[in-house]
Amino acid sequence: MKRFVVPALMIIALILGGCGKGGGLEKRFEEERIKWTQAKEMSFTADIVAELGDSVFECTLQCSVDNDEILLEVLKPENISGIKARLKENESQIEFDGIILSVENSAMGEKSPVWAVAMIMQALTKSPLTQIWTENAQERELIVTELYISESEYARLWFLKENFSLIHAELVSDGRAVVKCKI
Description:
30% of the residues lie in helices and 50% in strands. The chain is α+β, with helices and mostly antiparallel strands. The protein has an 11-stranded antiparallel beta sheet.
């Protein structure tokens, strides 16, 4: 009987030891989230690919986050370069060549490429964490998170494990990545 107890206890210890692995990642993510939430300003460039029904739209945006406002400027494609969007919680503005147009947020479309960055930033700072794990890609160790947006939508974010820099994000709707951002 004693011979079976020791191996059984070792197996249970190994199984339970693996349960804590995600906890360290969750704690680290929440620590980083506090930094992002408290940051007064952030800026980055995002290459966006959005599936819009039967077509695909690609663009490069310069993104700046200042308190509760997100400023986006289209860098590519050239034919719409220079268009800016200023996004706030209740109202947004589109600006081009000195002309400013106020737009209700519902008119912009929640899944438009313009709103993708805002949804990712909101998920990053406010949405509940549903999953977290590590994976390796192109000889880099990554932390991947899934953040709840709604019953059928979530944000999936990839961070470099070494410094928790966000490098890729996807908005997933009904199990399909509808907007992808390379940051």
